[in-house]
Task: structure prediction
Amino acid sequence: MNFLEIQFALRGRTLPADHGYALYSAVKQLLQRSEESMNFDFTDLPTDVRLCSIAGVPDKDGMIYLHRGSRMRLRCPAEQVQVWYRLMQNQVLDVKGHLIRLIQPRLMLLQPSHILKSRLVTFKLESIDHAEVPYYFLESCRKGLERLEINAQALIDSTPDGDLARRTLKVKDRFILGYGVVVEGLSDEDSLKLQWHGLGGRQHFGCGWFYAPKEGLDAA
Result:
């Protein structure tokens, strides 16, 4: 299957730092009130559409400030591009009371990279407070790569301070535990496969979105 990424420049000032679920909800509301969704026969994001959280400058109080490089990014099958392009262009999304307008959309092909990163990958783990959670998390990454027939090594990323990149995602009233992940030793084919399929769950909320490290999406 061929797929593309649509990137929208943004007009707006701020977003919650943890906005993955809220961004998904805003896009879902747009679908539900749009006539385009009737032509596509869905009012929720299909399983083969991925959203990325939006990068910005954190203020350490749970907010990020948008900058000129901030983008709303969506990956979808190539045959869906025209619908998403028309549906979202120039629309205003209400993300927990923060308004952003999607402008100047552009299309891009994903490029292979031997190393890919994801800011947050989540799996359903038995016990999130257990001392061996990193072990079980990496086991889940390994099994996920095996299911995709990807031969590469997954590692838990670190923060600039040298700590494990342990992060959470708020979904309604629940906090979901995950980690930043680096995958190394990818072939060109496997790199594109991982960028398309992602890893772990909650991919409509920005989790499991992989990118080349040079893109620098960790600003959020």
